[in-house]
Target: Rhodanese-related sulfurtransferase
Amino acid sequence: MIRKDLTGALIIVLGALVTAFSYNYVSPSGIALFGQWETSKGVVSAVSKTGSVNNSIDITNSDIIWQMVQKKERTVLDVRPSEIYNQGHLPHALSFPLMTFDDDFPELLNLINRSSPVMVYCSSVACTDSHEFAERLKNMGYTDVKVFSGGFRLWQEKGYEIEKNEK
Model:
């Protein structure tokens, strides 16, 4: 009796797995089964089957980012939600949350020339918002866009200066 129950349960589990993988395979919004999971190469991503993360724009070395911030070589954009930005962000970073990109783009155009060097970041290497924001900037004609793929978490871990917006 127990053997029959275990066999039935195994058939149900296998059937569910086959159904799930089949649906994922044919669905245009399915999740790619193979992604980039090695954090040393930049953002961690199991990208959708229709898109990919452009790692050629990544800067993973926080010391290089620190120098850029100190020298103000690039306009730094924090794409995290404003509430999180206000709790702490890279020095001189401007808040432009990804979720309000369409509403904020005219303001961004007024502040930053399309040929000016820009660097965007979000929370961490697991966050893809900075890459999506960078791609949108490139699609809107910005020519020199980089991503700090380690994001705010790596900046904090390195003990670099953090600004806060006191309200």
Observations:
- Helices lie at 2-26, 62-71, 82-87, 101-111, 129-139, 151-157.
- The first helix runs from residue 2 to 26.
